[in-house]
Design goal:
Radius of gyration: 27 Å
Number of strands: 56
Largest sheet: 6 strands, antiparallel
CATH architecture of one domain: Sandwich
CATH topology of one domain: Immunoglobulin-like
Distance between the termini: 48 Å
Length: 635
């Protein structure tokens, strides 16, 4: 689908920067400095053309790293290239004592290139070694450390920082025959070298973060048996997740395991609301430390688990769908905890302790990068979602001020911001943008009311005004019409024939008396500025899929009891929710696998007062996802 600048007004997007080549290998995100600048890191394996510049960066070896310094207005101030004749990776970056610290691995020599000048930072005679680089705010190298220089194979893969110093998760192979071990590193601010802690085991440490005032928490995966301190974990079958807490002397305080029959990983951890939160990606059945179990609804689900100071599991937020949902990171700022994730199911549901809190629709089975948040009232919220044709991830977030947010991430094909399409330069690109919170491009399904921001417009192609004050559809027209300053858009619901009545649309303006009714037909599109939605308007005539799902309620209206009657002509997954007139869920069936046939469900309304209720039905078949909305009246 082609987009042009005529389709939207970019009132919500302050700026957007893309960095790409034939392949951006990885980006750990960015850090925000108190001086107002932002430092973005990535690795690349082919030439990069810098934004707003004709400069091209050439990798010296197979893969190089890049640290780019931006202003709050999106201007690129400086770049530092981390080069090697072999391979350089950047795995993480943190802000520590107002300096920027990078971690990763390198082969041969680690060379810094800035403004055409080269500086040798480190050298190794081994196959691969790790590094820590510390830069001042003006991007000057302060110190470079190779913490495991005697190891034949090593790298630093995650950083953490608190008032006590800097610490990191790393891995190393001490000689050619030894097994690769995971270690934790500590860097005292009074020292210029790293102190090697005791090896944690042969499991994989994915991260290490500060916890409470002096403690640390590490997380990752393990196979077979994991022993740390006095605790022992035994894996269920494949790869299990682990979470450990260390005191200020790096002695183990707790070790928790999350098991499954396939693969499970603890991908992130943070402290929020006096709890330790960990993000777990899991498939099939997840066995929790409190002996509860959770069954995945699809090929992969997300669990955000909250533990109190005694390591009691108090809160479970589950992000689930019929396909694969994966968490990437947890991030706390202000009064909210943000969940970076990639979601692929048509409908994403978030449960808090088994209670449904949120449903979000999305349209890319390969996965959209998505931001969810959990506030201090333990209410989950949908924040932002990319729109594209392949996979993407969010790597960084920072609240720029009370009304704007800066976000970074990686996408592989197309990125749509403010209804405008940006194509990837290579196999994957890094995006870096500043956007208004009020216009943060929330993706909403086409049957909901969609809020607009000041300056937004709706563009309908191939429409012209007629003598009766309405609008006619003419596919030969090259132009269309703009509807400006609306406060919302309301779509009609599904009709009894099984088709969506998208041919009737009501535009609601700031003045309630100024409403316009329009009729459109096949193959029209609506472009909503400052959202990421392209709606196709289909005329509801003969519908090839209308017989796949029929749903009705009888009796309706009713006095005492009523039934939801559903018939399907193919196998699939059925979900439905009963809502009160205020939109409060009263009961539901979620993710029930059904075969062709007719089903009857009793609606438990005998104890409720008279009034209007709503039933929303979703059926996901082999090729179609069908929805029905039915009003129910109790006398």
């Amino acid at each position: 689908m082609a987009y042009s600048s005529a389709n939207a007004q970019q009132s919500g997007l302050a700026w957007l920067k893309l960095l790409g080549s034939s392949g951006i290998e990885h980006s750990p995100g960015f850090v925000a400095h108190p001086n107002g600048d932002y430092y973005l890191a990535l690795t690349f394996n082919a030439p990069i053309v810098l934004p707003s510049s004709t400069d091209t960066l050439q990798p010296m070896g197979g893969e190089d790293g890049l640290l780019a310094r931006y202003t709050a207005e999106g201007s690129l101030v400086a770049t530092i290239q981390l080069a090697s004749k072999g391979h350089v990776s950047i795995t993480d970056l943190v802000l520590h004592n107002n300096n920027i610290v990078l971690s990763g691995g390198f082969q041969d020599s680690l060379i810094l290139i800035k403004e055409g000048n080269e500086q040798l930072a480190l050298h190794t005679e081994q196959y691969l070694n790790g590094y820590l680089l510390e830069f001042s705010p003006n991007a000057q190298l302060i110190r470079a450390v190779n913490p495991m220089e005697d190891a034949v194979y090593a790298a630093v893969n995650h950083l953490g920082s608190n008032s006590g110093g800097l610490f990191a998760a790393a891995y190393m192979q001490s000689d050619t025959s030894a097994q690769i071990k995971n270690v934790m590193l500590g860097w005292d601010d009074q020292q210029t070298s790293l102190t090697l802690m005791k090896p944690a085991s042969t499991h994989k440490i994915l991260g290490i973060n500060p916890y409470r005032q002096t403690d640390k928490v590490f997380y990752g995966t393990f196979r077979d048996t994991l022993v740390y301190g006095q605790d022992t974990l035994i894996a269920k079958a494949g790869t299990d997740a682990c979470l450990g807490v260390l005191d200020e002397l790096d002695q183990p305080l707790a070790l928790l395991g999350f098991g499954s029959y396939q693969n499970t990983e603890a991908i992130a951890a943070t402290q929020y609301l006096n709890h330790l939160w960990v993000a777990i990606n899991f498939s099939d059945t997840l066995f929790l430390p409190n002996h509860d179990t959770i069954v995945s609804s699809g090929s992969n689900d997300i669990l955000i688990a909250g533990f109190d100071s005694l390591m009691n599991l108090n809160h479970q937020f589950r992000i689930t769908g019929v396909f694969a949902e994966n968490a990437d990171e947890l991030f706390v700022q202000g009064n909210e905890m943000f969940v970076f994730s990639n979601v692929a199911s048509p409908v994403i549901r978030i449960y808090h302790n088994d209670s449904l809190q949120l449903e979000v629709n999305q349209n890319n089975m390969h996965g959209n990068a998505t931001l969810f948040s959990i506030n201090n009232l333990l209410q989950s919220n949908f924040v932002w979602m990319t729109q594209h044709d392949w996979s993407s991830s969010i790597t960084g977030l920072h609240k720029f001020n009370s009304t704007e947010t800066i976000i970074s991430g990686v996408f592989t094909d197309k990125l749509i911001i403010d209804s405008l399409q940006y194509d990837a330069i290579g196999n994957s690109d890094v995006f870096f943008l500043r956007v208004s919170d009020a216009c943060i491009s929330k993706f909403k399904s086409n049957y909901l009311t969609i809020p607009f921001c000041e300056g937004d417009s709706v563009y309908l192609p191939h429409l012209q005004r007629n003598d009766q004050g309405g609008y006619d559809y003419n596919p030969a027209l090259e132009h269309g019409i703009y509807i400006t300053q609306p406060t919302g858009i309301m779509m009609e619901n599904w009709l009894e024939c099984g088709c969506l009545a998208k041919d009737s649309i009501v535009f609601m303006f700031a003045d309630d008396l100024e409403q316009k009714m329009m009729t459109s037909h096949n193959k029209s599109q609506i472009y909503l500025a400052n959202t990421q939605i392209n709606l196709t308007i289909d005329y509801c005539g003969e519908c090839a899929i209308q017989q796949l799902l029929t749903a009705d309620i009888s009796p309706n209206p009713f006095k005492h009891n009523s039934n939801l009657n559903i018939s399907v002509s193919e196998s699939g997954v059925l979900s439905y929710t009963l809502y009160s007139s205020l939109g409060v869920p009263l009961s539901q069936v979620v993710g029930r696998q059904i075969e062709p046939g007719t089903y009857h469900f009793n609606l438990p309304l005998h104890t409720h007062t008279s009034g209007t209720y709503l039933v929303k039905v979703l059926f996901i078949g082999k090729e179609h996802s069908l929805k029905r909305e039915i009003k129910l009246i109790k006398r």
